[in-house]
Each structure stands twice: as C-alpha cells, then as structure tokens.
Amino acid sequence: MSLSLVEVAGANFRTDEQSDTLNTAFMGRLGMRKRYLPARLAISRSLAIAAPPPLLGDELDPGKVIKGDTLFGTGTALSVWVALIAQRAGQPDLDVRGLIALVGAHWKRGLGHLDKDWEQSGQDVTKFIKRLVEVAELPMAGGSLPGVGGTVSGATFSSGQIEVPIGEIGEDATTKEKVLWNVNGKGGSPHSAIMGGSGSGKTVMAAAMLRAIREQASVPMLAFDFKGDLSDFSGTRGQTPLGEAFEAQVIEPPRMPIPLDVLRLTASDQYGIDEAALRFRESFSRLKGSRLGDRQRSAVHEAASRALKSEEPCELHHIRDRLLEVYQEHEMKEDGATASMEELCRFPLFKPMHSPAEFFQKSWIIKLPPNVPEDSRTIVVNLLLDALDQYLNSLVDAASSPDGARGLRIICMIDEAHQILSTKLPSLSRLIRMSRSKGGAIMLVSQSPDDFSGEDDDFLDQMGLVGAFSTNAKPGSAARVLGKGVNLTTLQTGQAYIRRRGDLAARKIKAW
Questions:
Q1: Span 5-150: which CATH code?
Q2: How big is the chain by its Cα radius of gyration, in Å?
Q3: Distance CA 303, CA 2 (A)
Q4: Cα dist from 89 to 19, 51, 52, 54, 57, whole Å
Q5: Which of 265, 267, 259, 266 is nearest to 354 (CA)?
Q6: CATH of segment(s) 163-261+355-510
Q7: Helix and strand element counts for the chain (H, E)
Q8: Using CA atoms in the order 340, 345, 351, 356, what is the torsion angle rounded to 10 degrees?
Q9: Which of these, 282, 275, 274, 228, lies nearest to 255 by C-alpha position?
Q10: Which DSSP symbol is given to 330?
C-alpha cells in the first residue's frame, strides 16, 4: 500500500456540502457534540454494503474538512479504519488521494442510508439503534446496545409534540371538554408542579400524566419515592403500575446502593476538579447534621478536591478519608462535618457501576422511605440531581422537530418534593431553569403552594403546568400560583385547579 499512517493522519477529508448538512442534522438527532461522530457512523454504515460507493462528482460543492487524526483517531484505531476501507475497495495500491475519495463517497452514501434508517424507525432513537445493530449483525442479547461514540444517552427519546390529558380523566369541570397539556411544545416548558394535601390525588394525576408521556415516547424516568409505593402505583382505575410502564429498576439505598459513578468528573483539569469539589461541598452543606462554618467548608472542599484528583472512581469514603487527613493537618477537632461523613459512609449509598451517560438512559425509581436516615436521603437526592444537572449540561441542546417540539432526554419526578425543597439545592434550581433546552423535564409533586414560598428562585414561574388539589394553603400562596379568586378549600374529590403556561386564568378540572 503506497500510503503511510502519518499522511492519512494529516490529510483533509470531506464529503459534499449537502451531505455535510445532513451530518450536522444527525449531531442534533443523536445528541453528539463532535462532527466526526456521525461521520464515523455514516462511513461504518456504508462499509456494511458490499458494493463500492459511487465517487463524488466534480459538480458537487465540497463540505467542511475533518483532519484524518480527528476523523479516525490515531494508532491502532487509525490503522483499523484504513485497513477496512482498503479491504472493501479491493485496491492494494491505494494512495492517499484514492483514500480521500473513497472516504468522501462512503461518508455520503452512509449518511443517505442512515437518514432512511432514521425515517423507517419513526425518528425513535431506540428503534434506530436497534436497526443499526441488525444491519451490523451484532447480538441483541447480553447487555445494553453499543452506543454511538461510546453512548447513545445523549440522544433524544421523542420526536414531535407530546400532548397528554391532565390526570386520569382530564376534563373541564363545567364543560366536560378534554383538557390537554402540550409537554414539549414550542415556546412552552416541560416542567410541572402538582400540589395537594394528603390523599387529594396529586400522585394519581402525576402518575397518569407520566404513563401518557411514556405511551408516546420511550423517554426514561428518574423518580424519587419518599413514601415507598410509587413503583406499584396503579392509580384509581387499576392501570399499569408506574414502575412497569417505564420498565424501571427500583433501588432502595442503603439496602441496595445506587449503581452510578455519582462523583465522576466532567473535566479532569484543575478547574474541573475545583468545580466538582465545590458542588459536592454545596450538596454536603445542605445536611442538617453537618453545620458547616467557614473552616469546615474550606476543609470539605479541600478533602473533596484531593479525593477527586487522586481516586478514579471517587467514592464517598475517599472524601471521608481525606477529610480526616485535612482535620489532622490543620489540628481541627472532629465535629458535625466529620460525624456526618462517617454516618454517610456507614453503608454504601452508591456503587460506581455506570457512568452518568449510561445511568440516565435507563429508568430508575429511588425509594427513600422515612426509615432511611434523613441525611442519607438528602445526600442521595442532592448528589443524583447534581449528577443529572452536570450530565445534561454537558450535552448539546436537544433537537427540535419541524413543529418546534423539543426532544425529551429524561423526566425527573420528585414525589413529596417538600422533603427536598427546603434544602434549596442549587442543582435543582439549575435543572428547572436550564434543562428545558437539553431535553430535561422536571415534575415536582408536593403538598402545598406554601412549599415553594421559601425558594430563592421562583420555581413556579418556570413551570409549563401547575396544578393544585384541595389544600389549606395560605390565600396569598394560592393566588401567586393560580391567580386571584382561587379557593383550594372548596374543591371536591378528584377536582383540581390547573394553569398552563400561556393561560389567562386557572381552570377547574376533573382529574380523577
């Protein structure tokens, strides 16, 4: 072969301009951040076809360039790519110019076939990946599907608008007409808040809407269950239990550790380490037992920074060990901070089996009933939400369909959310303010509008849907949420006031 890997690594590869536009489209469809990822997928798709691809004509406008060492990598990876292309071409005397021409042709043909695969899969990412696995004749059993560029978790799990009834019945209390919520429509918000006293039916409404979303899109769910009955919850009409509808795995820490590398760094430079240490300190400082003063806050940050820098994967017990070291070095007496760390490490809350990208493409219900120590419950929620926030914000914006609907990547549902709202966790605030563009949807189920009154950020202003059942909320709180003249104490069984973003006034509905 009359070429060298050094030449290939430095060569400029491109396809035609029209195909390059399709390459960009696949970045959005699959949540990819680099141009070379859909290019690699396209070339692989074309190599699966025995016939040689037609070479690009001179009349086609050229697309953007990707260097060989970026497109194919270096070392063994580069050698394998060149060998596969040369073998398929049947040209033992292939030179760099011939390789460039073949790569452009495979790239174009592969994108065309990927686009057909995408449409035939109904623009559903799971079906699309399954189709590619079938084309590649890979085994379907024995684990999760291989991902594009290492993972498919950055992809969206919906296409087009998702409209769901608001509750099991979801009809206007007066006119009996159906009342729907457009979850991901253009200009709206996919976040929701549902409030009501104990036994009012707020969880019935939430579960019905979640099932309806799942019926239209295979979006995964992360749910926090503070009562312990969410997985088997089937509503008032004996519907499919929520856990079964989402094919969710139920985890009950500390009896079962959560299989997530929850402290994984998104950037391993010093800035990334310091930022991760700061985020951990803010989560840890929300624990009631920690009581961090200035010296304790500095010590926790230093301990987390040391552990994150030296341990991979980093676990809570690594931070505990470094915290004890820091206390000894600074001649500090053990206090509430060290005691809280010891308590958190008494049982393993997390086990680093999955990366955030792998973890958040599956559905999980995290059971945190009252018998779990409060600090353990708080740190589990705080660290999981922090990991979700970092993961979503590491992705490109979720793709939008032609009708302007934003694709969904994950739904995060917090039942009995008043138990966590009081911690004023920054990551929850960031998720509500910023995750919409990334395909995140947050659902908060709480007891009363009063639960939101102490938040630094006005969460309810960020919601696409707010609903409230009968509750003894303060008149001012109810009016702030739903408008003047709304009296929640007069609602009958199964009734709720709801207000969607853009509605001029609240509406009374029959939810269940």
A1: 1.10.1220.160
A2: 26
A3: 55
A4: 21, 9, 7, 12, 18
A5: 259
A6: 3.40.50.300
A7: 18, 16
A8: 20
A9: 228
A10: T
pTM (predicted TM-score):
0.69
Can you tell me which residue has the tokens 């550790």?
257
Q: Can you state the percent helix, strand and coil of the chain, rounding each to 5? A: 45, 15, 45
What would the two tokens of residue 297 be?
């806050």
Q: Where in the chain is the domain with CATH 1.10.1220.160?
A: 5-150
The Cα 441–Cα 481 span in angstroms is 19
3-state secondary structure of 441: strand
E-assigned strands of 101-237? 163-165, 171-172, 180-182, 192-195, 221-225
Backbone angles phi, psi at 106, to 5 degrees: -65, -40
What CA–CA distance (Å, rounded) separates 138 from 26? 22
Give the CA angle between residues 62, 63, 64 to the nearest 5°.
Answer: 130
The one-character DSSP state at 184 is: S
User: What DSSP designation does 309 have?
Assistant: H
Query: Is it true that the peptide bond before 254 is cis, omega within 30 degrees of 0?
Result: yes
Ranges in the chain annotated CATH 3.40.50.300: 163-261+355-510
In terms of C-beta distances under 8 Å and separation of at least 24 residues, what long-range contacts does 47-50 make, across chains too?
47/84, 47/85, 47/88, 47/106, 47/110, 48/135, 48/136, 49/109, 49/113
> How many angstroms separate the Cα of 237 from the Cα of each of 133, 152, 227, 229, 492?
39, 36, 20, 16, 19
Element housing 258 (H / E): strand 258-260
- The amino acid occupying position 416 is E
| Alpha-helical regions (H) of 345-398 | 356-359, 374-393
CA–centroid distance for 7 within its chain = 40
Return the axis-axis angle of helices 96-120 and 125-136, rounded to nearest 10°.
130
For 39-105, what is the HEC assignment?
HHHHHHHHHCCCCCCCCCCCCCCECCCEEHHHHCCCHHHHHHHHHHHHHHHCCCCCCHHHHHHHHHH
Taking only the tens of pLDDT, the chain with its 512 residues reads: 467 888 899 999 999 999 999 999 999 888 888 899 999 999 998 888 777 888 998 889 999 999 999 999 888 888 889 988 988 887 767 889 999 999 999 999 999 989 988 887 888 887 788 778 766 654 443 333 333 333 344 677 888 899 999 999 999 999 999 999 999 998 899 999 999 888 888 999 999 999 999 999 999 999 999 988 888 888 777 788 999 999 999 999 988 999 999 999 887 888 889 989 999 998 898 887 667 888 999 999 999 999 999 998 999 999 999 999 999 999 999 988 999 999 999 989 999 999 898 899 999 999 998 888 888 888 999 999 999 999 998 888 888 888 889 999 999 999 988 877 776 777 888 898 889 999 999 999 988 777 776 554 467 788 999 999 988 777 677 777 787 778 888 888 999 999 999 888 899 999 98
Give yes or no for a contact between 226 and 365, defined as CB atoms under 8 angstroms apart.
no
